[in-house]
Design goal:
The chain is 41% helix and 13% strand. The protein contains 9 helices and 7 strands, in the order H-H-E-H-E-H-E-E-H-H-H-E-E-H-E-H. It starts with 5 loop residues before the first helix and ends with a helix. Bound molecules: pyridoxal-5'-phosphate. Pyridoxal-5'-phosphate binds next to loops.
Amino acid sequence: MPTYVLYRTLSEMQPARAIEIPYEADFQLPIAALLKENAALTCIATPNSPSGHAVPLAELRQLAAGLTGVLAIDEAYVDFADETALPLVAEFENVIIIRTLSKGYSLAGLRLGFGIAQPKLLAGLFKVKDSYNIDAIACQVGAAAMRDQAYKTACAQQVKEARSQLRIDLKNLNFRVWDSQANFLLTQPPQNAEALYLALKERGILVRYFKQPGLDDKLRITIGTEEQNRLLIEALVHLVR
Ligand SMILES: Cc1ncc(COP(=O)(O)O)c(C=O)c1O
């Protein structure tokens, strides 16, 4: 199962060699293979995209303990998940947690994210950081958003509830639906995924279709509002035979 494609793209822009180690069956983290490779930087997205599965904390701990390089844990979707790997930052000097305000805070346009790590690791990052900082407005807006945890948690809770309902509705339409701890569901429709993606697009409903091995028979469906989810299911009732 693939992961977030930007890791590969960004590494290709550097004098770096990207090594991709696929998940084992049922999204098992390939710990032995990752430890054997012992890369300078190991990236794990949890919850992962586009699968939506989360890697258990115990497995991330095992990985952090065995690696001599840096372990970057991408928690872009953590606000929709059951657990966070944050405790590992206190335990390991080589762990950095990466977060974004694009998902749980619905602030994708702000282009603001941050990392959490021990001072020694952060000092290394500051050495190569651009001398210009993120903009002052983004700092203010981001800080205000993060102060209002109650609002963010309530929004994430709505997404989680809608995710459970959408999962049931899609299963009733004979979709295979994977367990997800993110704000989307990876699904396998009972008919050609690309044709269904195009038919939905024609009706103004955008879902994600990846034309690549392992994913070209699947659709990644983002959890919308109650109304958007209802419109999606209504359209699918007509389209799925
Ligand atoms: C796993 C993962 N990490 C990070 C990001 C980056 O989000 P942004 O660039 O909006 O902060 C995304 C966005 O899709 C993602 O799926």
